[in-house]
Amino acid sequence: MSTMAVEDVAVAPVDQGFWTRTRKVGAVLLALGLLATVLFGALATGEQARFTLSEDSAGAALKIDGTFGAILFGLVAVAAGVTMLAGLPKRWFTLVLGVGLVGFVLSFLCWQVSAAPAGQNFMPLVNIIRGTFFLALPLIFGALAGVLCERSGVVNVAIEGQLLMGAFSGALFGSLSGSVWVGLVAAAIGGAFISLLLAVFSIRYLVDQVVMGIVLNLLALGITGFLYERLMQTNAQKYNSAPRFSNWEIPLLSDIPLLGPALFRGNIFLYLALLLVLVIHIALFRTRWGLRTRSVGEHPTAADTLGVKVLGLRYRNVLLAGVVAGIGGASYTLALYSFTKNMIGGKGFIALAALIFGRWSPTGALLAALFFGFADQLATYLGAINSVIPNQFLAMLPYLATILAVAGLVGRVRAPAADGKPYIKG
């Protein structure tokens, strides 16, 4: 096994010639930096761009002249691009890319905030951070569900259906019982139901896993849409008025400037998402279960010869993934919204992108989900300050960020070797 691994590494393809991946990304980053410096600098105004450390315009704030800030941060992106073009060591790639992208975003924000109407030329950072985490919650749960499945060798395209069934079950049974906890358990069972179908047809009957995932998404959409029209639309008071989880404030931590009000005055879903990221990461890389899961996802035949029950482990992990995704769906209907048809709106597919962007790692999935959540929150903020950017483009922003991240930033990534490959025990 080790000899084969060494040989695989030795023959792995590498970048050839001048235009390595680092230089290509550097060229794009340089172009973005020049765009920010010239265009954003020209469109920004001399008004101050204020980034307040609170939930409104009051209190302490970071201030910078709009034009100066747009040009300054644009030049930061230019410098990052030039550094990459000069031939950057691979170990610095992520850091320099991050600095360049942050510079581009800050240049853009200096333009937008300084050009906002009078009285609106500020960005409340607490609200931005809180909104980012809130919008990222279903993505975090969905991406974790993907990690559990795909690390076990089962492709989970059904995240959308698991989230949707969880949201519907939480709303319906939470409304009927009048209990948020009953709704939460029902949401977990709803997500597990979709996962059970995925497991049975993919593992037992060897149906193509991608096709099965798409079918299950359509099944969840049809079931929830039909019951919504027959029950919830006709009697919303009885079937679609679930109670909400209240926010829980953590003493001392909630008083930390900026991060405290945003992170430690949230509901159970925020704390549970962060806890699950930690627990799954430790379990996956530090426990016997995690070792067996990863071995089943990489080389199920070898795992089987060592006594690991491959099919049983895949069944359990796929069902567990459904529970996690179902709870993520409940973060909609037991925290803020009433259920509506197709309310997930493609977030399951963005969660799948976060899984790939995060390289099939719980912590990577968290960071990727926050990236997409920030794009979504930024679109909301720009709409609130009457940005000159058309609303249709703002609505596209989270999905554009998804495409750019997966196509342009991920680079070469390798899924678990047995991902999507059915295992037939000899």
TrEMBL record:
CDD domains: TM_PBP1_transp_TpRbsC_like. The chain crosses the membrane at residues 25-45, 66-86, 92-113, 125-148, 154-173, 180-203, 209-228, 268-285, 318-337, 349-373, 393-411. Keywords: Cell membrane, Membrane, Transmembrane, Transmembrane helix. GO terms for molecular function: transmembrane transporter activity. It holds the Pfam family BPD_transp_2. InterPro entries: ABC_transp_permease. It is found in: Cell membrane. It is a multi-pass membrane protein. Its main location: membrane. GO terms for cellular component: plasma membrane. The keyword Membrane applies. This is ABC transporter permease.
